[in-house]
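Please check this one:

***
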Amino acid sequence: MEKIQHSHVEVRGLKLHVAQIGSGDKVVVFLHGFPEIWYTWRHQLIAVANAGYRAIAIDFRGYGLSDQPPEPEKANFNDLVDDVVGLLDSLGISKAFLIGKDFGAFPAYMVAAVHPERVSGVIALGIPFMLPGRSAVQNHQLPQGFYITRWKEPGRAEADFGRFDAKAVVRNIYTLFSGSEVPVAAEDQEIMDLFDPSAPLPPWFSEEDLSVYASLYEKSGFRFALQVPYRTLNVDCGITEPIVKAPTLLIMGEKDYVRKFPGIEDYIRSGAMKHVVPDLDIIFMPEGSHFVQEQLPDQVNEFIITFLGKHSA
């Protein structure tokens, strides 16, 4: 970990925090989800660098050590796409592999669809191909207490999270979301109320890990995180007839609650995803949760390095 170098890179008027290790022309860029941050890729950064790649993980704008945009409520997923391309430009990188987890998979797919010349391959963890828009997640087919529906409502998550410090919010979400059930609150509950205070941290997530996450979210807060992804997930991104031609690997935990979203399991298993991502492989991890890269890092690293080796020129 001490070999990972940290810097800030000017991208589209904001300074984005960049963690990187390794060197060379073969580049891998890691894109985090929520409540994650660059640190979620700690195991992968080192493994990929040891395999001979330049490994880069960022904090998205508004997250962790990156700058906040001046008007967060005007942001959407297209900003993240432009940031990824802008980062490659700023670092003088012509082409890279993109690895996205949770909502970080969205900009990975989107960059590959809109800027195919910049993408060597895509690895997505936990999220099959989809674009922001009305059909992204079928909220209306889930109970009103569905966490995305709750967090989409302005002010509601702010009040819910505001009862706790950043460390408690991250602890609660990591513990709740590592389970196999979709987080849904009752009518008289908020999402944070679902957390059982006696529940231990997942065995693969230490108090030290929690402290790192907490320190980063203490700096950034959750304002931008609630805007992107939750309040812009159903905002059309303007990409019509998308095709991801780059080789793509989807890694799904069999115990990931996302598989229980309406239509997701059939979409993944039916082969429908190949209509938009023709060069697709899918790996199912029987014990995998929503956080497979932290829960089962050795296995995930092996999958990643095998994929990179297969598709590196």
